[in-house]
Amino acid sequence: MIAHDLGSGPVLVLVHGFGVDHRILLPLDRALADAGWRRVYIDLPWVPPVADDAPDSTQKIADGLVAELRNHLGDEPFAILGSSFGGMLARHVAHELRAQLRGLATLVGAFVPYATDRILPDRTILVEDEAALQAAGDEAADYAEVAVVQSADTARAFVELVAAPRRAADEALLTRIAGDYALDREPEAAHPEPFDLPSLHVFGRQDQVTGFEDGLALRAHYSRGTFAVLDAGGHNVHLERPALVEALVTDWLARMDA
User: Fold this and answer.
1) pLDDT 10s digits, 133-157
2) What CATH number is given for 2-121+169-257 in this structure?
3) Are 214 and 188 in contact (CB under 8 A)?
4) Does the pTM of the predicted model rise above 0.90?
């Protein structure tokens, strides 16, 4: 599961979303490195090369991630950031390994596993840009489905960081995981005591994939949580609002340092 272990300093584990790989989170790497953190990037089981015994449910992946981090980090303290599906896994790890955790961040996190049960905003495009669709090439339709503010820069990022990993992913394994997408118990229900470590939860106001209402509903549980709903942001909010997301993440890192 460990894709890269970069730099030195306090440890930050980064967990990507469903169907993609660690590259989706690399746009944050410079800010993390500048803040002096060691970055441990995870690749989830559908990323090639895929093992014959690859876990085929969210709970199995979550258990495997806990075991992988125990093996890789021992009892070293760490923080964890998860994006989308990775946010669900990060919440599980954070609650299971709270004794050695420094903090938790979710980026457009999936707080409710199945889309039919989520509270989602209507699909909204705030800025249309024909040049962006041309830059997306063969991926234009998929890009247009999630882009809230279309631009050539975000289109190129989508092709490189989202579409390319999706093409490489093991589709059969993804289908099996999608059929068993929920954890056995939500982390906040399994560990109901308030989560009193620094946390950050960033949402896109126009994100019609995971939404924001379900995450906000848990704000009382995260007693030291910053909750930010960013306008002009969809499910790839860190690509559409990079400066603001980086500022929020940097603030979270500083709160843990303090």
Assistant:
1) 999 999 999 999 999 999 999 999 9
2) 3.40.50.1820
3) no
4) yes
